[in-house]
Write a structure and sequence with these properties.
The longest helix has 14 residues. The chain has a 10-stranded mixed β-sheet, with helices on both faces. A two-stranded antiparallel ribbon has the order 5-6. It contains 12 helices and 12 strands. The radius of gyration is 21 Å and the shape is elongated. It is of the alpha/beta class. It has 2 domains: 50 residues, DNA polymerase, domain 1; 276 residues, Aldolase class I (TIM Barrel). Helices cover 34% and strands 16% of the residues.
Amino acid sequence: MATIPTGKPPLLGMTLRQLEQACQELELPKFTARQLSDWLYSKNIRNIDEMSNLSKAARARLDSAFTFGVEEPLSAQVSADGTKKYLFGAGTQRFVEAAYIPERSRATLCLSTQVGCKMGCLFCMTGKQGFQANLGPGAIINQVRSLPEREQLTNIVYMGMGEPFDNTDAVMQSLEVLTADWGFAWSPRRITVSTIGIIPAMERFLRESECHLAVSLHSPFDEERQRLMPIQHVYPVEEVIRSIREHGLGRQRRVSFEYILFEGVNDSSRHVKELARLLNGLRCRINLMRFHLVPGTPLKGTPEEQVLAFSQALNDKGIRTTIRASRGQDIDAACGLLSTRELVKRTLSDH
């Protein structure tokens, strides 16, 4: 599977065990690994030379083998509602996005895990780019580490470009860095990973992490969901939900289902009835989302009155349902739009 090519690997994104291995290979004391993790994940520095409690010789050895790994965003779009969409470089002519979403009592970062995506969902702009590369753990963590508003963050969601469980090793390593005491020491309850339902990787995540899970649902009917999301052919949603039921979730852990409403496609009373059957007895929540129009798709968003009625009907069935507020509508709000525009612009300028 393609990965972004690099020269020297970044220290950012490495686990404590990997840092210890690196120190051993460079013949540095084992305790240096803890010093490195502190500089990487607790201090606000940008290069190896700023690690002032390391000897000059140690810094020189590290610099010969690694980069620090923090890369600033290339640009930012700012919405009138305070949402900020950051564009990051991800190799030659490759770009990913991260969205900072401030609210009254919380501030969320929506980050990316891949450049493009191979899943081909009908409603997704990122999928129209095709798959280009996986992000390494450092490039995932960099979206947090280099964020100007990092100190204000309360929540992180893996809901940006790419399918997290198509890049499982890097995603799981980034989660370890975010939640470990030697890393960012975040509570896993403040992190949610979204998937379209790749069952083997999802089960690994449920075993090895305590972070919340979100599943892209979008229709409870097989043929309909398959038209929207080709992955349904490989991992039917019934099997995805059965897997979640069999794993079991503790009282402190949440599973939610993301459901974009498309006019005349998945917003009828029969959909409410089938969702109630499918999710019966599962402690979960449905997040309804308004569709952000993307070029080249025949889909249209459900009118607001019907969105409200659909939400009420699900709640009446005993399924906790919320409507996610649309943010950043005056900028490239739909995931993948900003990076696609930049990709097209750079390609045209090259020619």
